[in-house]
Structures are given as structure tokens and as C-alpha cells.
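call fold target=Putative transposase
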Amino acid sequence: MAFIDEHRSRFGVEPICRVLTEHGCRIAPSGYYAARNRPDSARSVRDREVASLIEAVFWDRNRGRGISGPRKVWRLLHRDGVEVARCTVERLMRVQGLRGTRRGKQFITTRPDAAATRPPDHVQRNFRAERPNELWVVDFTYVPTWSGMAFTAFVTDVFSRRIVGWRTMSRMPTDLPLDALEMALWVRERAGQDVAGVIQHSDAGAQYTALRYSERLADVGAIASIGTVGDSYDNALAETVVGLYKTECVKIDGPFRTADELEYATLSWVHWFNENRLHSSIGYLTPIEMEDLYYRENTTQEQPLLGELTLH
């Protein structure tokens, strides 16, 4: 069809069909005209409608963010009441050239302090929790900017996958993860939640074994837990959060001129991560939805609204 449409004004339909037939591509002029005048099939009409919805969801900064794959886009469409098969979403996204981002190689930033006393590993790679504030994992990473290296630390609640604390700085002293911890404690205190007894799991980096950090954990009744040196699997969930941050924020919104620009982008990403990103590990809910569901099912007292843009 496209070939005939392209050359019909120069050679005419009948001559083109005759030459094509002579070369083994049998097509009659009447067949060409019938196909040209035939109305669109129900499938092609539906494909156009769904493709438009897919594109809208995929590029929405508060939903697909331009990084969601077919599985997440399909789930988001279902939330909008759009009944469509997952294989259809996969097929149409291929046609549209839309694809989710994939995480690349991870880099290790852990610098252990051989002289520091390390708590035991209370997690043993079992990153599961039955309620919020039972287990937090923490880690930090580096991001190159035009004005030098910047660093971002995270505190993540294992139960809901919610990032409850974070901090971006242009250097990585003990203040970096400590500020992220302080945010996490403030967010939970503001929501009226007791964090005493929470296990806070980290790698063996010097920032997490520092005396100031250990004393702050003890002040709130948190239990420190540290994995072995040089083994990323001992803190795999925190490494996953860092990998998602690099893929979904740094790679998409960068490059950044300064640590301040990175901090603003991180703020936007963390808000989306907590409020809008669907997590397969918690049944394709958002972290905020997961915590709201827990408190609705397990408490009768009214819970404050979880988080705000400037905090999470």
C-alpha cells in the first residue's frame, strides 16, 4: 500500500500492480482500491486510543516520569480504569519507541574504619518487615556535578519502601547520613510514631560507625546493625534504592551544575518515589499507600497525613 501510494502519481496504479505481479507480488488494482477505501478495523481504532493514553501516562512527571516500563504503565492504566491487556501495552510501547530505564553498574563508596567498633548484623540479608519502623536500611552515594562531587544519603523503611529521610551535600562527613537520619526521626515523630526498637541496618562505612551517629541511634532506642565489609548483598535493599536514584533521577534529570541543583532534583524524585511510584515488592502500591493501608487495618486512632513535598 505505502509503495503504491508513493509512486502512483508518477506511474499510475495499474502499471505498478502489473509490475509487482510479474515479480511475484500478486496484487490487483481492485484489491488496492478496496484496501485503501476500507474503514479502519476496531483493533486499529482501539490501538490509537490506548497508544495516546500510554504516551500520556509514560511522560507524566508525576506518574510514569518517562522511565516506567510496560508493566508499570499497564498498572497505572488500570488505576485509571483503562482495561487493556499487558501484552497490548508492551506491543504498543514497542511501536511508539517507549521503554523503561534500566539500572547500570553500581559503584562502592564504603570506606570502613578498622578502629571503630561494629555492631552485629541483625538482618542477615532478610530484608522483610511486618510493620513500619521495624527495619530501616541506610546508604549514601556520590553524583558528579559540574562544580565537583556531591553526595546523597537515604533512610528507607523496609516495610513500605518509603524513603523517610534523605540529605544531599557537597561532601560526605558524618553529618551527611546523620542529617538523613534526623529527617527520618522528625518525619516519624511528626506523624506520632514511636521508632524505639527499630533496627537500622547499614554497611560498614566510617560515617555509620562514627561515635556521633551511634550515640544518636542509642538516644532514640534504635538498634544498630552493620553488614560485612565489601559485601553489597549485606545491604542489598539500600543499594537498590541508590540504583533506582541513579537511574530514575540522576540519569534522567542530570547533568547538574551544583549540589544545590542535585538537591532540588532529589527532592522532586523522592516525592514521586513515595507518592506515585508503584513498587512491585509491595503489590504495586506506592509507599504512602502501603503505610496508610497498614494503619487503617491495624489502628483505630486517626493517623496524620503521611509526608509532604518538602520532607519526603
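return ok
The chain has three domains: 1-37, 42-96, 135-297. The radius of gyration is 27 Å.
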